[in-house]
Amino acid sequence: MSDNPFVSVVTEHTFDDEVIESSKTTPVLVDFWADWCGPCKMLMPILDKLALEYEGKFRVAKVDTENERELAASQGIRSLPTVRVFRDGTAVDEFMGALPESGVREFIERHLPRPADDHLASAAALADDGNLQGAIALLNESLEADPDYLKLRLRLASYLLEAKDTEGAAKLLRSAPLAAAQDPEVKQLRARIELAQNVDATVDIQSLKNRVEQSPDDLEARVALARCALQEPDQLDSAMTQYLEIIRMDRGGESAQQAQATLLQIFESLGAQDDRVRRCRRELARALN
Predict the structure, then answer these.
(1) Cα(189)–Cα(186) distance, rounded to whole angstroms?
(2) Beta pairing partners, 86
């Protein structure tokens, strides 16, 4: 095993101290490995090299899953190697398999403190105080200094979307690194932008509500009303309800197919763990059967 000062062997008895507690001050990458695992052995020298190169900006904790079966089971490890990063006492990200050095480096960079983190905190305070434009201006300035920081780019795009600058948010996301395309946050934000781009802000919502009340089978009015509801985050449940009703009424027609596609975008924008997504997926399954 390595004599690297930034790499340590961790057991069930030392995990809390060397991973959970240590990650409250320095990010810790936990490498779950086994001696019989070829990809694990390919990954080890990469982690060793980068730990030395970064000189303690992160630490590597190695868990031999053959000797620490209970620890691996408690962490839900099902594939080797699994590298999981802990920050502030919590697991925040992971990858499985032997990535090339460039991929491991990119993974590490996502979780190291950066000067822009102070700007992110300040921008969040400005946005909370209602100064959304101030938050946007601050993050635009910060992005010029650190254009490769994905977290910064995503936060700025989210603020632009909140400020109704849909095109600005879309442009910012299009210029994100290609490697980030499958990042869950990128996919969610892209879905939110696509939904916003389909909204017609000039439509009178009250008139649409009146049309639906007077003619419940008016699919055109329901579609327009659902799209309008997407403009406001607190109306998302209403939009989802309208789309479900369209699917029930149209039963495989063009409006139902479009409604289903939009619901899937909404699910993507919210994330699979959102309670609204779980509930609506069940209702969607019933509506389609």
Answers:
(1) 5
(2) 28, 91
| pLDDT tens by residue, 139-179 | 999 999 988 888 899 999 999 988 989 999 999 988 877 66
Question: Which tens digits make up the pLDDT trace of 62-108?
Answer: 999 999 999 999 999 999 999 999 999 999 999 999 999 999 998 99
State the DSSP H helix or E strand holding residue 262, giving kind and residue range, or none if neither.
helix 254-270
Phi, psi of 231 (to 5 degrees): -70, -25
pTM, two decimals, is: 0.56
Q: CA-to-CA distance for 44 and 28, rounded, in angstroms?
A: 15
Backbone angles phi, psi at 4, to 5 degrees: -60, 125
Residue 41 token pair: 């052995």
Query: Are 96 and 81 within 8 A, CB to CB?
Result: yes
Could you tell me which residues come within 8 angstroms of residue 214 by beta carbon, excluding any fewer than 6 positions away? none
Tell me phi and psi for residue 10, to 5 degrees. -120, 140
CA-CA distance, 74 to 70, in Å (whole number)?
6
Rounded CA-CA distance 89/269 in Å is 27
Strands 59-64 and 7-9: parallel
Q: What do you get for the CA distance between the two ends of the chain, in Å?
A: 57
Residue matched to tokens 């079966």: 69
In order, the DSSP letters of 182-236 are: T-HHHHHHHHHHHHHHT--TTS-HHHHHHHHHH-TT-HHHHHHHHHHHTTSGGGH
Question: Which residues form the catalytic set?
Answer: 37, 40
Beta bridge partner(s), residue 87: 90
